Amino acid sequence: MRLDFTLTALLAAGLSQAQYLISELSFGHAGRISPAESRGQIPNFVLQGAPQMPEVLSNRIILTPLAPGNQRGAVWSQQSLQRSQWIADVDFRVNGPDRGGGNLNIWLARNGPGAVGSSSVYTVGKFDGLALVLDKTGSSGGMIRGYLNDGTTDFGSKQRVEELAFGHCSYSYRNLGRPSQIKMRQSSTTFRVEIDGQLCFETNKFSLPSGYQFGVTAATPDTPDSFEVFKLVVMSDNSDTGTDNTNKQQTPNKNPPSNNNNDNSNSNNNNNNNAKKDTYDGGELADENPDIFQTSKTQFMDLHNRLQSTNHQLSSLHRVASRHQQQDEKRHEEIMQIMSQLRTGLAKVDEINELQGRITDLDKEIQGLRRELTRKFQANERSVKAVLNDHHSSLSEALIDSTPGHRFLIFVFFGTQGLVITAYLVYKRRRNSMPKKYL
After folding, report:
1. H or E stretch including 55?
2. Taking the model in full, what pTM does it have?
3. Which of 25, 284, 339, 426 allows an S-S link to 238, with CB 3.0 to 4.6 Å?
4. Which DSSP letter does residue 226 get?
C-alpha cells in the first residue's frame, strides 16, 4: 500500500519534473550488465586493467579481486556526456580482510580512457575533470573526497593529495554486506554528492562543462579489497539543453505533402525518425502532426520510440520509488530504534520513581528511628539522674555519719591549747629553779 502511494505521488511529481535515462552512458539498470551474446563486454563501455582485466558477471563488475593484490581495474564510457545538468548513480560494494585496503575512483574526465586509464587519483598525473575518491586515507573508517583539475596540476607528484580536495565526508564502506550508492547531482546552481541518500557535501563554486566521459577505477595494495560495481546510471531532466538536443528544436511540416513528392515526404519522415532516435533517451518526445505518418513503418517507429521513452520514464520512477521505499524502511528502523530507546528510558524513569518511593520509605523509617532514639536517650537520662541523686544523697549521709561532732572538735582544740600552756609553764618553772652560774 505504501509503495502504491509512493508511485502515485512520484508519477504526479514526474509530470512536472521527469528524469530521463541516458542509456549510452549507463549500465546495470536493466537487470543484466552484459548481454549473453556480448561475451563479457558492456555495450558502449570499454574495460581496462593491469595486470588482469576486470571480471564482468551478470549483475556486477569485479574491478579488483580479493586475490592477488596490486591490481588495477577500470570501466569507461565510450561516449561523452552532452548535458550541463545531470544525475549519476553508482552502486558499489567493498569486501576484504580486516587489514585490506585500496581505493575506488569515480571519474568525469575529458578523454578518460586515454588520460586516466586505470589509474587512481594518487597516480594519475594531470587530468581534466572531476574525481570522486573513496578510501581510508586519513580515516580509520573511510572517507569520500572530491577533486577538481583543469589539466595543469600533476596529482602523481603531490605528497598529500587529500589536501587538494574541495569537499569530503566520512563513510565506513567496507564489509557492509550490501551495495552502497553514491549519487552525484549537478544542477544549474550547485554540485551535490550524496551517499546512501544522505548529503555528503555540496558546493556552488563550479559547474562542469559537457564533453567529459564517465568512468570508475579501482586500485589495491598487497592486501587487497574487492571492489564491485553493480550499476552506473546517468539521467537528465527535460529542462536541460545539451548539444545533442538540437534536433528537438526542429518542427515538423504541418502541411501534408502532395502525392507528387512522396520521395521528399519519405526523406522528411526518416529525418524526423532519426531525430526521435537521438532525443528519446535524453528528453521528452515532441508532439507530431499525425498527417506526416504516411506509412505503417513510420507509425510503428514513432509508436516504438514513444513506448520506449515511456518505459524508460517508468523505470526511472520505479528506481526512485524503490529508493524512497528503502529510505522509508531505514527511517522506520530508525524510528523503531528510537522507540526502543524511549521505552528503555521510560523503564529507567519507572525505576527512578520506585527508587524515590524507597527513599521516602527509608526517610520515614529514619525519622521514626530518630524519635525512638530520642525517647530512649531521654529515658536513660532520667534514670541516670535518679541514680546519681540517690547516690549523692547516700554519700552525703555517709559523710555526715563519719564526720566527728562539734563538741569533739572544740574539746580537741581547747585541750591542745591547754597542753601547750601547761608545758610552757613547766618549762618556765624549771628554768627559774636552776642554779645561777657566774663567770
Report:
1. strand 55-56
2. 0.54
3. 284
4. E
